[in-house]
Write a structure and sequence with these properties.
9 helices; homohexamer; globular; seven-stranded mixed β-sheet; alpha+beta; about 290 residues
Chain lengths: ~290, ~290, ~290, ~290, ~290, ~290
C-alpha cells in the first residue's frame, strides 16, 4: 500500500496560481521547478503533473490521473466522464469571473441567438458552443480557433464564443456580447476507478476536506464582541442565522462576550450595526481553515 | 434611496496601493481595470474614481465627490473646505514618512528660514510654501515646479520645497534640508452636503469605522499567556495600561490565563519581560479589525 | 571664452529617449545617472539638465537655459518668447503622432465645438485650450487638470482637452473625439540673448546642423544600382526629383552605375519599379548623417 | 482599384518579432496596438491581422487573407493549398533553429522509429506526425496535445513529437531525441485567387522583393579594400566566386581599389587572408537591402 | 547605557529576504535603502549593516559586530569562533534545502569519495571541502572558485563542491552528485565579549526569543474543535502528544470544546481524522508568535 | 589538425554583454543558453566557456584556455603570466570608465596615501592594492572583501579599494576618493604554448584582427562631401591628418568629391566647419569593420 501514489493534475495557466495557493493553504506545498512540468509535492503519497486544463478531464477519465483540477468549461468541452469531488469556488473572486460569451461585431445585424442560424462561430470550446446552439435550436457552423479569436469577426467568422473577464479586450475589438454561455468555476475531479479504491477514495476525500476548509477559511472570519446585557437579544437577532454563537456572561457585570463565525462580506454591515447598539471591543480574527 | 450612490475618490500615485489595501481590509474590494480610471467596487451603493490626490479635496468640496482620500499636504495646498472624517495613519509606516522639506544647495549661504528673504523657491505645493513663509514672516518668491525639482537649485531657483521619504534624492543633488514644513498623513474627507444627508452620513461613518478598525487591526495584536499565580500581580503591572485584560484561573492549578490586546510594537518588549517572570505559553494572534 | 558653458535642457518623459538618441546620433553622448537630474555630456563646453518639457520654454526664455528641447504644445502653452532654431520632426514616427484632442462622452449632446458654449473643459494645457476656444469664438470654462483627465467627463467636467497617441485610453473611458487642436512636433529652442552671443550662436547652429543631419540620416538612404544603357532615361525619370544622381558608365559595357540618396519611404516603390525595368545589383546603404 | 486592400496575416508568437522587424527593414512600419489584434500598417493599400501561425495557412487558402507569413510546419500540418511566394530564411539564426523532433524517455526501450509500432505519440502537430509515420511505414496512435507535451512520456504517452530550439526543456524532462522530422523555415504564402488578380500579384511580388532584399541585406556586406598591384590576381582568386568585383586602379600608384559584396560569414575568413596578402584599408560597410 | 548600540549584520543575498521577514515578524522593521548597505532599523539601540554571509562570522568573532545572521556553511568555512545563540530553521522550507554537494561529470570514472585521491576540486568553500576530505582520509587539491563552478569539470577541474537547491543547474552541466557535505541552516551568532556584557546579552537573548517565537509561529497553528462527549477520549488520543489541550464542557450539552496548538504539517492528517470521529466546527487559526 | 579546438573564456558579469557584442560584430555568434555556462559558438574550431573575469587570466596562463577576455585589473591582480594579444578599448565608453579607487569616510583624517600607514584596507583586489601601497612605500594591512565593500569604513576597515563607475554608490556611503589606482581596459590574452602552436597563433591573430576591426569600426565613420574647387585646399587642411583622403574632380564642374574615414568624435566639429566653407552633400556612413 505504501508505494501507492495518488496522481494529481495541476492546471497550467490562469488557474495555476490560485490552485497552488489553495493547496498550500490546505497544507500541501507544491513547487514548480524552473522549466519542468513534473511538480514537487511534500507528500510522498502523491505525484504531481502540470498539464493544460483542457486535457486534465480526459486524463482523469482515462485513469492517467487519479485527481485533477479543472474548470467547468473544459470538463464540459472535453465531454469527459469524471466524478466531481467538490467545487473550489473562490468567494473573494466575485468581481473577476471567468465567463464564456458569444460576441458579434458592434454593428452586426445579429441581435439574438436566433440570428446566428447559418452563420459561422469561431471558438476554442467547440463542444460547449455546439451544445449551446443545440439547446437554442440554432444551426450554425462552429470552427475551432487557435487564439486571437477577438480579431476574427467579421472578416474570418460571423461570431465568436470566447472567454472574458473584464470585457476590455472585446471592447477593444469592437465586439458586442450577445449572450453568456457559462460562468465557469473550478472543480476537483476524480474517476470511478480511483473512487472504488478504498485508499485512494479516503485520500481524495481528505484532500477535498482540507481544500474546502481552506477555501471557506478565506471567506469566513471569527468575530468577538462585548454586548451590554440590555442589548443582548437585539444583538443576537442582528447576527447571521447560520450557527448559534457562543455567549458567555462576564462575571460581575451586565455584559456578555459573544463569539461567532461569519462571512467576511457580512462583517461590513454587521460591525457598524453592532457598534450602534452599544457593543464594544469588537474584534475580527482571521481563520486559516474551517471544517464544519 | 436605493439608486443613491456614494461617490468615492481614490488617490492615484503613492497613496494608491495602501488605500486599496485598507479598503480591502475594511471589507471592500476595489479593482483597478487596465487603462481605466473608473474603478470597480463590490458595493452597489458606491461609485469609485481614480484621481490625483491634488484634485480630490477640491472635488470633495464642490460635491463632485461625497468622499475622498487625500493627504494633509494636498488638503492644505488646495485650500479646500472639507470635513475631515478621520485620519488613516498607518502605524507601521513609521520609518517611511512623507515629509515636505525646504532644501538649499549644500554650499548655499542660506542657513535659516530668515535667509530666504527675497529669494525664489520652486515647489509643487505653492500655497503650502507661501503659508509657511507667512508664518515665518519671510517674503520670498514661490514658483510652481512641474517636477525634477531637485535639479533646480542653484541655477533655476534659490531653494525648493519638496517631498522626501529617505533623503537619498536630495543628497544625490547636493541639497541640504533647511526645515520641515509638514509630515503628511492620510485623511478621509467629505463635504457639508453629504454630511447633512442622513443616508450618506451614516454610510460614510460606517466606512470610516471599518477603515479605522482595519488600520488599528494592523497595529494591534492579541496576546495570550499562562501566568503563575505568584506572579499575577507583577505581570498585570507590566501590561500596557490601555484596557483591562481578561483573567481566568485555570481550574485546579495556581495558574491564570491572561488575554490582552496590545500594540504590536509593545510586544517586542513585553514578551521577553513576561517570559522572564515565568509566564508560559505566550501566544500572539493577528487581528483583522478592532473596533472599541 | 573657454569656461563659457552652453546650458541645455533635456525634456523628461515621453520625449526623453528620442532626444537622447538623436543627440547620440549627432555625436553627443549624454548619460542619465541613476536618481540624478544633472546629466553628463561628453562636451566640456556644455551643461545638461533634465527638466519637464512644460518648464523648458520658460527657462529658455528667461535665459536660465541657452538651449532646450520641447514640444510645440508646451511652447505655446507656456507663452514663452523663444527662438525656434529648428524642427526635429522624426520622419519614422508617422504612425505614432502626439495629438491634443477635445473629447466628450460618447453619448454627450455636444456634437461640435460650438456646443461647448458655457461648458467646462478640463485639461493640462489651459492656455492651448483657451486659445483654441477664442479662435472658435466659444466661451467655456477651462480648468487645470492634474491628470487622469479621461475619467472626468461627464461627472467632473463636460469635456476634456488631452493628449492621445492611439486613442485606446479615450475609447476605454467611452470618450469621443470632437476636434484636434494640435499635432505636436519637437523643437530646438533658444533665446535672444544666447542668439546675440557670437560664440553661443555658432555653437547652437552647429548643434542644430548635426541634429538635423542625424534626423535626416534616419529617413534618407543611399541607393546604388546598375542600369542597362537602354533604360537609363526611363530609370532616371523614375527617380525622385530631389537631387541629380551620380551616373557613371561601366567601362566596356552598355551599363551605368547610378547612385542616389532618397527617402527610405520612397524606396518601397522605387526598388520594384527599377527591378522591373531591368536594373540589377540594387543596393540600399544606411546613412548616419546627411547635411546638404 | 484604389479601395482594394491586400489582407495580410502576421503570425502571433515566436515568429512575430522577426516578421515585424523584416517588414520594417523592407520599408513597412507595422504597429501592434496594446490589446488589439488589428495591426496598423503605414500602407493604405494593406490591412493587417495578428493570427496564430497555425491558422494563417488555412485563411490564406480560403481567401480570407491574400498574403500570410507562417512556418513550413504549420503549412504542412494544416494541409492548406497555398502558393509559396518566397522563403524568408534568416541567415543569422543558424545557431537557433526550430526543429520538430520525436522524443522518448531516456530509459525507454524505443530506440528507433520502428519501435514506435503500436505506441502512442502526443503532439501539437498531428498531421505532421502521421505523415512522418506513414513515410516510415509505422502504425502508431497520434494524439493531439494542448501543451506541456514534455511532461507526458511515459505516463500519458509513449513518445512525443515536439518543437525544440536548444534541447534544454527536453533534457529537463529526461527525454531523448529519436529523430528530427522537420527543420522549419518561414514562408510568405498567398492563394490562387490573389495570384490571378493582376494588382494583387504585382503588389505581393513587390513585397516579396523588398522582404527578400531586406533578408539578404542582413547577411551580405560590402567590402572595400586597397590591393597592391602585385597581389591583385591572388586577391581576386581569394574572393568568393559569386559576382565579379569592381576593380579600379588608383591613379599614379600600383594599387587597386577592389569592391565586392559578400556574405558576412565569409568575411571572417576573408579579411585575415586579404590582410596577409598585403591588402590595406579593408573596410566593411553594412547593407540595408540588396536586390540582384 | 543609553547610547550603547548593538551592531547587527544582515546577510546579503539568498538569506536576505527571509532574514528581514523574520525580523519583521519578531517586531523589528528593517529597511534597505536604495544603493546603501547601512540599513535602517526601528530600534534606536541597534545599528544594522548589510554584509556578505561569508564575512559575517569573522566580523562577529572580532567584535566588529555584536550579532549576526549567517549559515552553518560560512561559519564552518570561515573557522570563526562564535557563539551560536539559536537556530533559525525555517520549517516551511523543507522542499527547498541549501545543500553543499560534491559533483563530478556524469561520465567521470570517479564513483566514490575515495576516487578523488590526487584530484582537483574547485569550490567557493575551500575549508569546508578540505575538512570533508580530511574526514574521509582523501588527499586532493582544493582550489578556490570565484563562480560559474558548474562549468569547470572536467576541463578546469576534476570535481566541484558547490551549493545546490534543485539540482537543475548541475544537470544542465551534466554533473552527477557524489556526496552531500552539508545541509546548511541559518544561525544567529554572537561573540564572547558581547555575551559577557550584561546589557548586550539580555538584548541578544530577547531578540533570539522573539525571532524563535516568530519562526515557531510560522509552523504552529491553533486548532479549535467541538468534540462529542462519547468521542472525547479517542479524540484526545489522536492529538499530538506535545502539550495538554484545553478542554471545556459546553454547558448543557454532551459536547466539549477542545483547543490545541499543533504543527501546521500535522493538521493535514489531524483534521480528516477528527472529522471522521464526529468532531464539528473545526477551526484553524494562524499564530504570529509562540513562546513556550 | 581539424579536431583541434581553440578554447575561449568569456567573462561573466559587467564585461559579458560588450564582449559578446564585439564577437558578433567580428563575425562570431556566441549564444548563452539558459542556465548553462558552456556557450555555443558558430565556429566548429572553437569551444567557449563563461567564467568569472577574476579566473580567466590564471586559466589562460595554465593553458586550460587558449584565449580569454579579461580586464587589466584582474590580469594584474591574479599575477598571471599571459601574453596580451591586443587591447579592446571601447572608444564610445569614455564617459563610463571602470576605475579602481581608494576611498575613505568623508570625515576621515586620512587625507593622502601616506596617511594609510598602519591602517586596514578592504578590497576585492588584494594584490592590486598591495602593489600600489608598495609603490607608495606605505605599509598597511590589506583584507579581502567579499562584497558590500562600501559599507565597511570606518567600522570594519579604515579605507577601501573598490571599483566605481559613476561614484554614486561611494557618495551614498559617505566616502571620499583618495586616489585612483587603475583605469581598467579590456584585453585579449593568450599563453606561450598556444602562441607557439602555429595553427593556434594564426587563428588567434585572425580573431584579434577581426575584433580590432570591429572595435575600430564602432568609432570610425566614412565621410563623403562635395567641395567647391576654390575651397579644396582649405577643406583638406581641416581634415584630420590620419590618412590621405580620396579626391575626385566632378566632371565638368569646379567641384570635388572628397571621401575620408575619420573618428566619429571628430565629425562633430568637422561637419559644421566644412559646411561653413561651402561644402555640400556631406554624408556620414556607418562602418562595420575597418582593418588598416
Amino acid at each position: 500500500m505504501n508505494d501507492k501514489k495518488l496522481k494529481l493534475g495541476i492546471p497550467k495557466g490562469s488557474l495555476q496560481d490560485y490552485t497552488l495557493k489553495m493547496f498550500k493553504a490546505a497544507g500541501f506545498d507544491i513547487e514548480v521547478p524552473e522549466r519542468r512540468y513534473f511538480l514537487k509535492i511534500d507528500d510522498p503519497e502523491m505525484e504531481c503533473f502540470l498539464l493544460r486544463p483542457q486535457e486534465i478531464p480526459k486524463y482523469v477519465e482515462k485513469g492517467k490521473l487519479d485527481l485533477g483540477i479543472s474548470g467547468d468549461d473544459w470538463i464540459l468541452e472535453s465531454k469527459a466522464k469524471v466524478i466531481e469531488v467538490c467545487d473550489l469556488k473562490y468567494a473573494k473572486q466575485e468581481i473577476k469571473k471567468v465567463k464564456w460569451v458569444l460576441a458579434v461585431p458592434e454593428d452586426s445585424s445579429i441581435k439574438s441567438v436566433q440570428d446566428l442560424e447559418g452563420k459561422t462561430i469561431a471558438t476554442e470550446a467547440v463542444n460547449l458552443t455546439k451544445d449551446y446552439l443545440r439547446k437554442n435550436k440554432v444551426k450554425a457552423k462552429v470552427e475551432f480557433s487557435w487564439g486571437t479569436t477577438e480579431v476574427k469577426p467579421p472578416r474570418f467568422t460571423d461570431a465568436i464564443c470566447d472567454i472574458t473577464e473584464t470585457g476590455v479586450s472585446l471592447r477593444a475589438h469592437n465586439l458586442r456580447i450577445l449572450d453568456t454561455l457559462l460562468i465557469s468555476s473550478t472543480k476537483l475531479i476524480t474517476n470511478k476507478k480511483a473512487w472504488q479504491d478504498k485508499w485512494k477514495k479516503e485520500k481524495i476525500k481528505d484532500i477535498a476536506l482540507l481544500l474546502q476548509g481552506a477555501v471557506k477559511g478565506e471567506e469566513v472570519v471569527n468575530l468577538m464582541m462585548h454586548v451590554p446585557g440590555l442589548k443582548l437579544n437585539r444583538a443576537l437577532k442582528a447576527l447571521p442565522k447560520l450557527k448559534s454563537p457562543t455567549i458567555k456572561k462576564i462575571a460581575g457585570e451586565n455584559w456578555y462576550d459573544v463569539i461567532i463565525n461569519c462571512k467576511e462580506k457580512e462583517v461590513r454591515e454587521l460591525i457598524p450595526k453592532l457598534k450602534r447598539m452599544g457593543c464594544q471591543g469588537i474584534i475580527e480574527y482571521p481563520i486559516s481553515k474551517i471544517v464544519t
